[in-house]
Amino acid sequence: MHRDNSKEPWGLASIEPPPFEETRLLGLTEQSLPVRPLRSPLERALLLAVLAVGLGALVLLATSLRTDLGKVPWAVAYGPALLELLAGAGALWLAMRWSVPGSGERYTRSSVLLATAMGLALAAALAAPHFVAGDHPGLCVGSASGMGLPCTGWQFLIAVPIFLASLWFISRGAAVSSVLAGALAGLGAGLLSDAAIHLHCPAVDPSHTVTWHLGAVALLTAAGALIGRALPKW
Q1: Cβ pair 139, 68 in contact under 8 A
Q2: Closest CA to 123 of 204, 222, 65, 69
Q3: 93-130 pLDDT tens trace
Q4: CA–CA dist 126, 151 (Å, integer)
Q5: pTM of this prediction?
């Protein structure tokens, strides 16, 4: 007598499960979400630079341009701001490069060259006005008593949105060194904001510039390095 196993509990064992590869592919398809590719490092750096220019323009509209811009050579009036703008955009570009997995280490030499260029730019920004002060008495070279906190406040108002946007861009990648990427983001944001403040603040006294302007850049750089420790790493 033939026994029908399909009516027995153990008869269920005769049902073959779907192939493993098919099951895994089905699960991945159901759980997958659309992925938006990252913009290139150059595109992200340019977006941040445009944001910096927009924020700087708003701050200058809300305050005023320095009164001695028309009394000194163009290179002295706008040169340091232009150098800081280029250096800040370069720092942000390097930060975005370091957020691309496996590619940032190729730009160590570029990081050194950028740091050297920024040092020369900042030295020129500090020294140039004093060389022309005798020929251009309209240039403000005195102390900036009471201007320190306002300068730093406006600088942070410009820098913080750029800084946070940079960190967000970095967090979407996986930097080889997230600490270095974060530090470069803070450095770039600080330089871009100081480029705008240079067109507002008439004081070029080194003690004021180093303490309040470059001090803000240093704080943002240190903050970027600390926050970078918590960002995803490759």
Answers
A1: yes
A2: 204
A3: 888 888 876 665 566 666 666 666 666 666 666 555 55
A4: 16
A5: 0.72
